[in-house]
Specification:
Elements (H helix, E strand, L loop, with lengths): L6 E13 L2 E9 L10 E2 L2 E3 L11 E2 L3 H8 L3 H19 L4 E3 L12 H12 L4 H8 L1 E4 L4 E7 L7 E10 L13 E7 L1 H9 L7 H10 L5 H6 L12 E5 L2 E5 L5 E4 L6
Parallel strand pairs: 1-9, 5-7
Antiparallel strand pairs: 1-2, 1-4, 2-3, 2-10, 6-7, 8-9, 11-12, 12-13
Length: 266
């Protein structure tokens, strides 16, 4: 027996858009060499950085205190998680949930060389989100995010994350791009298509991705997703695992069983 690994706070964002055949979600396939979830399909996201707690970040929309109520945590952690969600979405997908102060506009284009220089500085931690927004005269738009799910890794895992999942529409004029350096594929898929590819072994996923795709599946479009965000606060899900003659299963607290599919050989 060993002591459980310490929990690290993390934020993940389900970017959604209206495709020609209905709702689509942006998915990244992490490179196989990654120390965590290598080869798995996931959403943009990552661990909270100490500078995500910066109280100087320009802010619009629900306050950190409001987010604390929604996420079931204190105000400081809520600030960190929302900032991490916005920062990671920009770092990994090139989508920035920010806009000018005092209005509903969102920055329409973040693809220029100057933007890329700042994105790289964020990745190196040479620049904080607060500094980027201040330099651009922008505010973080927390109103563009919705709380969606909360997962805590079980004690047996060697890397453990306490992860809040958010959902957000890609702002008009922006486009998600495969620029993270941590993925060998980025794609937009209908939730049902992604789940089918997982079931046949083409797209391995961890249980939180499987379950949240299932949560998205009933929604017809972005507006329905944003209007149907879960009630506050989120309830944490910690799975346990069972191995049977039929395979390995993640069993959720409500009894839901998610079959973990072994990926096909590459």
């Amino acid at each position: 027996m060993r002591e459980p690994a310490p929990l690290r706070q993390a934020a993940t964002v389900l970017l959604v858009r209206d495709g020609t055949a209905g709702l689509e979600v942006y998915l990244l396939r992490r490179t196989r060499g990654m120390p965590f979830a290598g080869g798995m399909t996931a959403y943009p996201g990552g661990g909270v950085d100490p500078r995500d707690a910066d109280v100087d970040v320009a802010w619009a929309g629900p306050s950190p205190a409001d987010w604390g109520s929604a996420l079931g945590c204190d105000e400081r952690l809520a600030r960190e998680l929302v900032c991490a969600a916005v920062r990671e979405t920009f770092e990994e997908a090139g989508v920035l949930l920010a806009g000018p102060a005092g209005g509903d506009a969102v920055v329409p284009d973040v693809t220029g060389a100057d933007w890329e220089e700042q994105r790289q500085a964020l990745l190196r931690r040479d620049l904080s989100l607060a500094e980027l927004l201040a330099a651009r005269g922008l505010v973080l738009r927390s109103d563009l995010l919705r709380p969606f799910a909360h997962w805590i890794a079980p004690p047996r895992e060697p890397r453990r994350y306490d992860t809040k999942f958010f959902v957000a529409a890609v702002p008009e004029g922006q486009e998600a791009r495969n620029i993270s350096g941590e993925a060998d594929e980025a794609t937009w898929l209908a939730p049902s298509t992604a789940l089918h590819e997982m079931a046949v072994g083409q797209r391995p996923m961890l249980p939180p991705t499987i379950h949240t795709l299932g949560q998205l599946e009933p929604y017809s479009d972005v507006a329905a997703v944003l209007a149907g965000a879960p009630p506050e606060p989120l309830h944490a899900i910690t799975p346990r695992f069972e191995t049977t003659p039929d395979g390995t299963w993640a069993v959720l607290p409500d009894g839901t069983r998610l079959r973990l599919v072994v990926p096909l050989p590459s």
